[in-house]
Amino acid sequence: MLADRGWTMAGRERARGRRLIAVIAAVAAAGVVTGLNVPSAVAAQPAALIPAAATTPAGHGAVIGSQADQLNGVACRSARDCLAVGADYHTGTPLAESWNGTRWRVLSVTLPAGASGALLDGVACPAATGTYCVVVGVVIKGSTAEALAETWNGKAWTPILPAASAGSHLSAVSCQSPKRCVAVGVGSASGGIGGVLAESWNGSTWTPGKISLPPHAQGGFLDGVSCATASFCVATGAEFTGSTGAEAPLIEGWNGKDWVVMKPAAPKTSIETGLYAVSCPSPVSCVTVGSGGNTEAGSIGYAEAWNGKTWALTSAVPWPKGTTDPWLYGVSCRAVGHCVAVGLNDWNPASNQTLSGRAAAATWNGKAWTATPVTVPGKDDASGFGAVTCPPGNKVFCAAVGYRGPQNSTVSSALSGFWNGRRWAVILPAQ
Questions:
Q1: Host H or E run for residue 259
Q2: Per-residue pLDDT for the chain (431 aa), expressed as one digit of tens each?
Q3: Whole-angstrom distance, CA of residue 153 vs CA of residue 110
Q4: Nearest residue to 417 (alpha-carbon basis) of 400, 396, 395
Q5: 308 contact partners, CB below 8 Å, separation of at least 6
Q6: Any idea where the domains of the chain sit in the sequence?
Q7: Residue 176: Cβ-neighbour burial (10 angstroms; 0-12, 13-18, 19+)
Q8: CA–CA separation, 71 vs 222, rounded Å?
């Protein structure tokens, strides 16, 4: 188990993008992967959507009653057919649940032979394909962390290990069909913080893509991907630059053959930020969301939009009066000008890598954002959404997932919310 090896998530994330560096930091701390240096900026990130994992003495296993469940990704074909994935970060146990329109059901995940744990991050279920889904993450085998992919046919899991170096991690996946998917994440590197990773799926084999960071970058990660067509995909994340490994937004575009670095708009701020999710309903329309924060300046959440030629900052989300320190982690657009973004508000910069803040969401009409209230049970609990999906053809349905747990703690349970076009209905998944 991860805890048995002294692994800690050290407050880096997931939400979505920061989860990658948490894994790298944990791997490096455990001596699994050498040559990886985690920038000081990582330590300043909030525990947000991955609570700091409690460690247990070797041989003692998980902390009974102290799970750190979190759902990291969700895909829905309809309001009655969803698959969500994540993990218990105290034990390294993968988590998968299916939704039938009424309740969540826990699914037992099959891991590769010799695996001692796994973290599941991204999921895609191509429309009109019955029950077929693709899930990505990272698997622990002995003293090695490896990129993981799984396929789900509605009854059984088939685990696959993509061709990637030890220490690699796939964090997001987008599928046009069961035979056409693109996944992105972070790969290990001999002399830096990690390199960006991209893989393509043809229905039977994963093939590494030729993708690289900007020349000046020391390292980086990709944490979101969206493919509008077979020849247009966008991946987002962050690069690390300078002597301190400062985090900066990163966007890469794919034309079906080659990956090319795109120029983000990037907010003018002293706070280091990354872009953690992206959604492209067409090749001329994408929305990506990002965040950043530190103990001195607090945090910001922002969005950028693509018009087919350039990226530009959108207007800010008009959160309710008194709202502080927002983070945006997930976004989904069912059509051009119809998007939902999720994250959390009121993060406490002094939380010292424990849970703080409250789940938050907003809608985008192509011109402006509108904050949508999210009420989570437990007035004293912390909560956050890390991923959202709004399936095409469903005008008034979106599903979001994340975590919920006591403020200032490292214990959490999975959280889900459903949007009907007017309000959010929050449901606690099966544990």
A1: strand 259-262
A2: 222 222 222 233 333 334 434 443 443 343 333 232 333 333 334 443 432 222 222 222 223 345 689 999 999 999 999 999 999 988 889 999 999 999 999 999 999 999 999 999 999 999 777 789 999 999 998 888 899 999 999 999 999 999 998 889 999 999 999 999 999 999 975 444 678 999 999 999 999 999 999 998 989 999 999 999 999 999 999 999 887 788 999 999 999 999 999 999 988 888 899 999 999 999 999 999 999 988 888 899 999 999 999 999 999 999 999 999 999 999 999 999 999 999 999 999 888 778 999 999 999 999 999 999 999 988 889 999 999 999 987 778 999 999 999 998 888 999 999 999 999 999 988 76
A3: 13
A4: 400
A5: 283, 284, 285
A6: 3-427
A7: middle
A8: 19
Segment (H or E) for 24: helix 16-29
- Radius of gyration of the chain from its Cα atoms, rounded to whole angstroms: 19
Residue 327: burial class (beta carbons within 10 Å; 0-12, 13-18, 19+): buried
Residue 338: closest CA among 425, 279, 263:
279
Do 163 and 206 contact (CB within 8 A), yes or no?
Answer: yes
Handedness of CA 279, 394, 132, 412 (dihedral sign): positive
Cα–Cα separations (whole angstroms), residue 217 to 66, 198, 365, 415? 39, 17, 35, 36
Distance CA 68, CA 50 (A): 8
CATH architecture of 3-427: 6 Propeller (2.120)
Distances (CA, A) of 99 to 13, 104, 124: 25, 5, 14
> What is the number of residues in the chain?
431
